């Protein structure tokens, strides 16, 4: 039985895998293919959501023990640690207080089985060195939420189902297994439960009578009718939430309507007040129109003044530019006049210096008119004397030259005029000769 249920490999895809690994593999593969519920623009579309949980227990001596708890507290044969089997109308038969572990893959389930098998009760008999003394039940609890098409307020149905995978203990006779003591009670409990669960036959000819009795028991058990029902549980929590949401929405709508009513009343009062204000504003509107006309006229005058001012500003700007050009030209003329004035001033200073020098020279070389007259008379007398002398000399020369041959006369070395000049120089006193310079009238002295 263990070989059939578990096999030699826990890999569901292996050829030697048992029923449990294969079932787990198919279960999780089908879960991946389930359509997922979606919501688009407030509308929910049909989908399935499956949540899987696993429990692992053993039935030992007609008592149920949890294999997923600490072995020091629950995996003993003490009746105080046994779990209670209960039955209700909505849940049916269930084990109260059993450990449920969420699982999402085959590997997680295999890990739970290995943990539970380490806590399982086994014993050595003459027929099997590792004979299981209890029935091991791996239960997969599947909770499927089915969402139907509809609005966001529609609910969904919840289907709860479970898959029980049982590894039965061995059915052995006492005389063949050679068990003693407490193991005899274990064997009795095993045979009792196996008689209610399954019929086991042996193809050996020596077991023909027992096989015949077993088959007769099974034939009677087949007459028992079992009716399977779908365990559909409404999602009350979701329904309560949706009803509460509807109630809240209605309350919000009521509050909104109340607010709208209050707003409508306020609007009515405001509208009446507005009519009164509109009547009062009609007169003000007329006055305002008149004021607007006046403002329009004033604005036109302002525009005309602005245009005139703009033209005048343009003219003044042009005049300013012309004046700036004239000022620049005047500055240039002033600079040229200043340069000319400086040049004339320098010339004036030079002339004044020359004048001063000339005046000093005049003061130094001044000759009076009396001295000039005296010198003129002296020059006249000297010239007369010289002329007389020249004439006398010429006369004597002619006389001498006539008496004496020319070859006997001594050579004339100096010009007569030169001698006269010398004589004149000797005749005129030096103090009577004026120095070179300007002759200034006597009145200046």
Overview of the molecule:
The structure is a single chain. The protein is of the alpha+beta class and 445 residues long. Among the domains are: 2-234, Kinesin (3-Layer(aba) Sandwich), CATH 3.40.850.10; 367-405 and 413-444, no CATH class. It is 56% helix and 16% strand. It contains ten helices and 13 strands. The strands form four sheets. Strands 3, 4, 7, 10, 12 and 13 form a six-stranded antiparallel sheet that branches. The chain has a three-stranded antiparallel sheet with strand order 1-2-11, with no helix packed on it. The chain has a two-stranded antiparallel sheet with strand order 5-6. It is elongated, with a radius of gyration of 78 Å. The model is unreliable at 414-445 (pLDDT under 50).
Short key terms for the protein model shown above:
445 residues, Kinesin, 16% strand, disordered C terminus, 3-stranded antiparallel sheet, elongated, alpha+beta, 13 strands, 10 helices, 56% helix, 6-stranded antiparallel sheet
CATH 4th-level superfamily of the domain at 2-234: Kinesin motor domain
CATH topology of the domain at 2-234: Kinesin
Task: Give the fraction of residues assigned to helices.
Answer: 55-70%
- Could you describe the largest sheet, including whether it forms a barrel? 6 strands, antiparallel
Task: Give the low-confidence spans.
Answer: 414-445
Structural class: alpha+beta
**Percentage of β-strand residues:** 15-25%
Gyration radius, rounded: 78 Å
Shape: elongated
Number of helices: 10
The N- to C-terminal Cα distance equals 177 Å
Question: Class of the domain at 2-234 in CATH?
Answer: Alpha Beta
Order of helices and strands: HHEEEEHEEEHEEEEEHHHEHHH
Subcellular location: Cytoplasm
Domain Kinesin motor: 1-197
GO molecular function: ATP binding; microtubule binding; microtubule motor activity
Pfam families: Kinesin (PF00225)
């Amino acid at each position: 039985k263990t070989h059939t249920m578990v096999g030699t490999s826990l890999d569901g895809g292996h050829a030697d895998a048992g029923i449990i690994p294969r079932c787990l593999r198919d279960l999780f593969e089908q879960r991946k293919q389930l359509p997922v519920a979606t919501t688009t623009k407030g509308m929910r579309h049909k989908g399935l959501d499956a949540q899987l949980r696993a429990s692992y227990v053993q039935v030992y001596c007609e008592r149920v023990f949890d294999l997923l708890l600490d072995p020091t507290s629950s995996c003993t044969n003490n009746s105080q640690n046994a779990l209670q089997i209960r039955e209700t109308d909505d849940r049916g038969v269930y084990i109260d207080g059993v450990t449920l572990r969420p699982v999402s893959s085959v590997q997680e389930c295999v890990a739970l089985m290995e943990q539970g098998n380490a806590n399982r009760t086994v014993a050595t008999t003459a027929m099997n060195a590792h004979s299981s003394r209890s029935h091991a039940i791996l239960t997969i609890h599947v909770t499927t939420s089915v969402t139907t098409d509809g609005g966001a307020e529609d609910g969904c149905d919840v289907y709860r189902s479970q898959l029980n995978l049982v590894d039965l203990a061995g059915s052995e006779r006492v005389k063949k297994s050679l068990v003693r003591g407490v193991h005899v009670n274990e064997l009795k409990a095993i045979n009792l439960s196996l008689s209610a669960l399954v019929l086991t036959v042996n193809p050996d000819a020596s077991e023909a009578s027992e096989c015949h009795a077993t088959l007769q028991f099974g034939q009677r058990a087949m007459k028992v009718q079992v009716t399977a029902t779908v365990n559909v549980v409404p999602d009350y929590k979701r329904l309560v939430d949706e009803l509460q949401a509807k109630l809240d929405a209605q309350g919000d709508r009521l509050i909104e309507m109340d607010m709208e009513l209050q707003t409508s009343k306020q609007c009515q009062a405001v509208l009446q007040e507005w009519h009164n204000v509109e009547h009062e504003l009609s007169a003000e509107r007329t006055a305002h129109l008149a004021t607007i006309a006046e403002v329009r006229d004033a604005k036109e005058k302002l525009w005309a003044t602005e245009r005139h001012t703009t033209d005048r500003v343009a003219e003044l700007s042009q005049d300013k530019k012309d004046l700036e050009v004239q000022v620049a030209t005047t500055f240039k003329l002033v600079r040229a006049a200043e340069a000319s004035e400086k040049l004339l001033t320098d010339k004036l200073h030079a002339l004044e210096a020359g004048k001063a020098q000339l005046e000093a020279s005049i003061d130094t070389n001044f000759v009076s008119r009396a001295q000039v007259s005296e010198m003129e008379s002296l020059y006249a007398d000297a010239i007369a004397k010289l002329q007389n002398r020249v004439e006398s000399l010429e006369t004597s020369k002619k006389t001498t030259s006539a008496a004496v041959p020319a070859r006997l006369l001594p050579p004339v070395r100096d010009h007569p005029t030169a001698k006269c000049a010398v004589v004149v120089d000797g005749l005129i006193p030096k103090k009577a000769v004026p120095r070179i310079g300007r002759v200034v009238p006597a009145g200046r002295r």
